[in-house]
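Session log. Operator J.P. requested a structure for one protein chain; no other inputs attached. Running the standard single-chain path with token output.
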Amino acid sequence: MWRRILALTIKEFLALLKDKRSRMVVVVPPLVQLLVFGYAATYDLKNVPYAVYNEDTGKASRDLLAGFRGSPNFSEVALLSSEGQIEPVIDKKEALLVIHIDSRFSRDLLLGRSARVQIIVDGRNSNTAMLAQNYASTIINNFNTAWNARHGRAGPPAYVTTRAWFNPNLESRWFIVPGIVGLLTLVVTMMVTALSVAREREQGTFDQLLVTPLRPLEMIIGKSLPGFLIGMSEATVIILAAVLWFKVPFLGNVATLYTGVFLFLLSAIGIGLMISSIAITQQQGLLGAFLFLVPAIILSGFTTPIANMPPLIQELTLLNPMRYFMVILRGVFLEGMSFHLLIGQFWPLAAIAVTTLTAAGWLFRHRLY
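Structure written below.
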């Protein structure tokens, strides 16, 4: 039995690797996507362009603006001389925000009064606007604290001290890169398995399989092994890149992580083989894989928290293997979660794997005969 399965596995690898386009799909896109996601997909803002309209000539306003000029998050692009210049700067996207300091700013502070600073933000991209506004608020709060300390005044009645666990510097890359392991592993595994049976039908070699001693179960295993080995290799390369290249901390256990990788790959292979068993041509297989991949990624929590989705959509995510794998990846990488804490994620993956592989076997036998 295992000799026949090994022979089919080798045949699958040869069919996959002899085609230049198939080799490119397996090797090049994951590396390109890893670099693109690793460097381009970030929630952090750097060098936010801002303009200044300062009506005050006192030292206090200069001290406040020094906080913006010394911050790596902001980059000054214009000094405005009139209020009428504010609207064009925002409309033309020359600046993301404008700092408007009132003419009585320094005098009011010296007299112990509240002084006005207006932050005008381009709200066309609400997420970016909110981040820029939070950065600006932090600088202004730091100025307030320093001013009160220098002038011997009591600070506000309560201070908020924030401490971020698991990601002290709030680096969005630490959150995104572990998720890329699941995303790219799913894409590559689905592409390999979703085309395997369809390729046989399209090339006219499916009938040749029928006259071999291979039984349907052996064919399923032989078709699964190449996708599993390629997926495991891809996952390992991306994990190493995350730790060694992107410097994402790895606080958990390797065995715990690879338990999740193993179960996730079985789930992805089962879904891919279901699609491949139904598809007649490779084009249909690609379309089926695409129709699954896009919702699976969106509903996985990769970028949007599942808790923010409507209740019905949250229920649908329970059928998505990537949902559970995202929790495993980020839990092992950033939180150092142990095996027993992740059992609640392992068993749904195992259930999905058993269900999809069983369904793929039934579909394969049904289409075979």
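Operator note: The longest helix spans residues 216-245.
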